[in-house]
Amino acid sequence: MKVGELSPHELRHALAGPGLRITTGPFGCRLQSPIAAVADELAQLYQHHELLDESRFIDFHVKVAPPTGLRRWLRPQAIFSVDGVHPFTPLPIEQALPMLEWGLNWCVTAYCHHLLVLHAATVAHGDRALILPAPPGSGKSTLCAALFNRGWRLLSDELTLIDLRDGRVHPLGRPVNLKNQSIELIASFAPNAFLSRPVHDTAKGTVALMAPSRASVEASLEPAWPRWVVLPRWQAQAPTRLEALPPGEAFLHLADNAMNYHILAEQGFEALGRLIDRAEAFHFSYSDLDEAIVTFDRLAERA
Amino acid sequence: MSLLKAIWLQPQACAQLDESAWDLLVRQARHANLLGRLHHHLRDAGAPVHERAQVHLLSAATMAERQHRSVRREAGILRDTLAALGLPLILLKGAAYVLSGLPAARGRVFADVDILVPRERLEDVESQLMLTGWVTDNLDAYDQRYYRRWMHELPAMIHMHRGTALDVHHTILPATARLKPSAAALLEAAIELPGLPGIRVLSPSDMVLHSACHLFHEGEADNLLRDLSDLDLLLRHFGAQPDFWELLLARARAQQLTRPLSLALRYASTELATPVPETLLRETGAHRREALNPLYRRLFEPQHESSAGRAARAARAALFVRGHWLRMPPWLLAYHVAHKAIFPPQQTRANGP
């Protein structure tokens, strides 16, 4: 059974009470929140995700709720917790939904050193993965959202999970975090995809979450092989340009963007080495999303 | 009994756990800071581990490995820093277990490196550390005084580039505590580690006694089960050496630490089935039943919502008070409590687990 098959009442009841148990890629998550606005948008963002029953293993027990105490009457806030631990300070209640997503990302970076975790978006064509590692502001989420709205499969937008045993990329299958100008851009590029209401004045500016496509969620148990590593750079008026990147340089970029490279030590080094051996690496600068799609579709046909 | 303790005592019972029980086990172990250690414990026992739980156990053990590498590196640097003062580096607690390669090190996570220096060289050590990049967190004048006059350690230091935390102790109990073990005796008995010139750890007896003091005086409930497990692993390891138990008892008596030892032996044997010779239990009084028993037994459970209800919260509060009671005389405790009530500490941001 899927989240979308629950009635709004059932969903709110689960979130406010025992929790909504869902599967996102390799992880089981139990989500709890008494905040009604969170429930309504969560229902849309996760509508294609499978529900888990109570007998199943849960990796992350997370909750976003107003803190207790007097402050909540003065300035409504929300606090994120994972199984009773509060890794962040509270935020204004309007940011509850993005906070839940950031919190789930925190869980992956804090608890998942059985994987190499890259700060990168990944989409796939069949079982071949295109990894987009990049610092914030480079347009990786925009490019990733554009690609999975044009036939590519979304694996993850923020955290790319590399299996240390075989080097494959595990899909995370969670919503895409769009920021500032890219919200409007993608909303008009893919008018049919669900976008949450923009939340202003967060640490990352204005953010909105985009639901992953149905096909992406349904394939979220199927890992893909790293095939391309692309460092995107969005620049106003820039012509579309894809340039080969030497493997050594690509390695350093990936290591820079690996969340737990220092924790995994030799294992991390070897996993990155294997990844670079399998993949072709490029620099990519662009300003036009349609041209970008054509470029990557061609790349996929050629290989 | 919590699931975590049941499985710790009987790893073969893993075979009977379903997915939701594994889920609970991982949560309890994570809250008790025992997830990485559980990984090694279950592997040694050859217990069947569910693959969904296995990744969390492995992940925690990997994180511990990373901390151990960083502690080894830090120890080398600190040794050189102290050598400039003509002092050996004496490691305590987690860092000592790691550098000695003791079973108590495996999967153990810790936030800081603890070292012991002679009290009369404390000022030299502090300045030398500051010269090499260690700084004290911002503390108000009261907290500075609290540490410097009444406690057994300097305020925690942090390295400005490497971000590692350091606790500099000059003895193993606060200066104001009723029990006054001799710090000079600890320094004198410290043992240089083979292959690591200039790096020492406490003698086996002192290491156990320090662990016992820490457990029953610091009043930090979240790590109590982990600390008891440290004791269990130390006792199992050193207990195999001839004369260990006689030396331990003699040392406890000489250092006025029979009381913490008696508690340590009692709870290690009742809670974690540590093999302790009958004679030692009798001679330290560890076999007696006491009023504190129900209090501690609640706390030697993971402090997770599934195993720590209202009664455990009350027990934590009581233990916190008891810890302070043992650390300082009544007049000082009254003063300290009054100060903290009038000037409550600023809430600081939690930094994850």
Explain what the structure shows.
- The complex is a heterodimer of chains A (about 300) and B (about 350).
- Chain A has about 300 residues and is an alpha+beta fold.
- Chain A has two domains: about 5-110, no CATH class; about 115-300.
- Chain A has eleven helices and 16 strands.
- Chain A has helices spanning about 10-15, 35-45, 70-75, 95-110, 140-150, 180-190, 215-220, 245-255, 260-265, 265-280, 290-300; strands spanning about 20-25, 25-30, 60-65, 75-80, 90, 115-125, 130-135, 155, 160-165, 170, 175-180, 200, 205-210, 225-235, 240-245, 280-285.
- In chain A, strands 6, 7, 8, 9, 10, 14, 15 and 16 form an eight-stranded mixed beta sheet that branches. In chain A, strands 1-2-3-4-5 form a five-stranded mixed beta sheet.
- In chain A, a hairpin with an 8-residue loop joins strand 4 and strand 5 (about 90).
- In chain A, helix 1 crosses helix 2 and helix 5 packs parallel to helix 6.
- The longest helix of chain A has 16 residues, at about 95-110.
- Chain A is globular.
- Chain B is of the alpha/beta class.
- Chain B has one domain (about 5-340): Beta Polymerase, domain 2 (2-Layer Sandwich), CATH 3.30.460.40.
- In chain B, strands 3-4-5-2-1-7-6 form a seven-stranded mixed beta sheet, with helices on one face.
- The longest helix of chain B has about 35 residues, at about 50-85.
- The radius of gyration of chain B is 20 Å and the shape is globular.
- In chain B, about 45% of the residues are buried.
